[in-house]
Specification:
alpha+beta, endonuclease activity, 14 strands, DUF222, nucleic acid binding, HNH_nuc, single chain
Length: about 425
């Protein structure tokens, strides 16, 4: 690592070494919180100094010394910053140079780097030019923003900044909401998907309203999922509902649907079979996961010859016909897994004995299960319907999941048809 010639940075580094060497295991809450508060203030001060130095490097063209064109590219390459983080530090440095009151508050540790980033648009060249043209007292705005950033919640600071910027251009053209929207997907080696997006205020409100409606409609007792997991499950449920409704635009003459390709031998093999099935967009899943998806879908038989050419394309048939699904919905009402209240339109029709293993596609061999519990049943949990029409749920160890109150003298009450 390149050495630096600053005695102050050397002392800072030594102080950090001393802090890192201290044992925290014997400290109690108040002492830890006091320590944390001091570290947060120090972190704010250090972030302000980083932004100040980055700005000075930008002004003097220091990036060229290492063969880089901009300080953003230097931060990406030498400090391993993400593109977004690098751009944010550069913007903060420029803002601190234009807003001395905010800079002083940040240097004292009273204002965080995140707050400076929220204020930065105020110091953008276009904003400063508009303020000068309208005779706005930028110094007064600077002082007011420093006060709000140091004393009020971050959300309130963002509102103040947005209000100020809107006042600078009250008669400006209403922006096209679609111009700022973006959604990108990144597929990982294990088939999982990451995505990143940007929505305008109205578009974001629509997404939050839709996701929140499903989150609030599915809050069973004992739910241990985090808020992030609940929201992700709700987003998947939205997709399930939209795909099942059949109203989405067609793709290459067919309605959009989840495509799974799996060999028949893997499909009927009770083993997990990792990496045995392939999804339409390129992900690879296990045979067990494919069996779960095949519970309630369309199946097409394709015979492949030794040279890889399709020899026979069988007729596609619906595993669970519509009339059977209606009957299962009428009987079960919703997910039959103990303690779940997911409605019928969130559920798949599960074959209690999988059709690939010889199970009949019949009312007696069918049950409604939501996505979460359908997965559970394909991974060790078991459901069973007694002669009185009550559903029972069993853990992988064979013990029954009972819904309060726990009554052992008679079968647990559940959603009976």
């Amino acid at each position: 690592m390149r050495s630096n010639g600053s005695p102050a940075i050397s002392r800072l580094s030594a102080a950090l070494d001393e802090l890192a060497a201290e044992d925290l295991s014997g400290k109690f809450g108040p002492e830890l919180l006091e320590r944390l508060g001091g570290l947060v203030v120090a972190s704010n001060r250090l972030s302000a100094e980083v932004a100040r130095v980055v700005r000075e490097c930008e002004v003097t063209g220091a990036a060229e010394h290492d063969g880089q064109k901009t300080m953003a590219s230097w931060l990406r390459g030498h400090a391993r910053f993400s593109p977004g983080a690098a751009a944010r530090v550069v913007r903060c440095g420029r803002a601190l140079a234009e807003l001395p009151a905010v800079a002083a508050a940040a240097a004292s540790g009273a204002v965080s780097a995140e707050a400076v980033a929220a204020i930065a648009p105020v110091a953008a060249p276009a904003s400063l030019a508009a303020a000068e043209e309208q005779g706005v007292d930028v110094a007064g705005v600077d002082a007011a923003l420093a006060e709000v950033a140091a004393s009020r919640p971050h959300a309130e600071l963002r509102q103040v900044v947005e209000h100020y910027l809107a006042r600078l251009d009250p008669d400006g053209t209403e922006p096209d909401p679609t111009e700022g929207r973006s959604l990108t997907f990144a597929r990982h080696a294990d088939g999982s998907l990451s995505f990143r997006g940007e929505l305008d205020a109205v578009g974001g409100e629509k997404l939050q309203a839709a996701v929140e409606s499903i989150v609030q409609a599915s809050r069973p007792a004992g739910d241990m999922r985090t808020r992030a997991q609940q929201s992700a499950d709700a987003l998947v449920q939205l997709c399930d509902n939209a795909l099942a409704a059949g109203n989405l635009p067609t793709l290459r003459t067919v309605k959009p649907h989840v495509v799974v390709r799996v060999d028949l031998d893997d499909l009927v093999d009770p083993a997990t079979g990792p990496g045995a099935a392939h999804l339409g967009f390129g992900a690879t899943i296990s045979a067990a996961r494919a069996r779960w998806l095949a519970c309630d879908g369309n199946v097409t038989r394709i015979v492949i010859g030794p040279d890889g050419q399709p020899l026979d394309l069988g007729r596609t048939h619906r595993v669970v016909p519509a009339r059977l699904r209606r009957a299962v919905e009428a009987r079960d009402g919703g997910c039959v897994f103990a303690g779940c209240d997911a409605p019928a339109h969130w559920c798949d029709v599960h074959h209690v004995l999988h059709w690939a293993d010889g199970g009949e596609t019949s009312l007696g061999n069918s049950a409604l299960l939501c996505e979460r519990h359908h997965t559970k049943v394909h991974h060790g949990f078991r459901i069973e319907r007694d002669h009185q029409g009550r559903w029972h749920t069993y853990r992988p160890d064979g013990t029954e999941i009972l819904v309060l109150p726990h009554i052992t003298e008679q079968p647990a009450r559940s959603r009976a048809g």
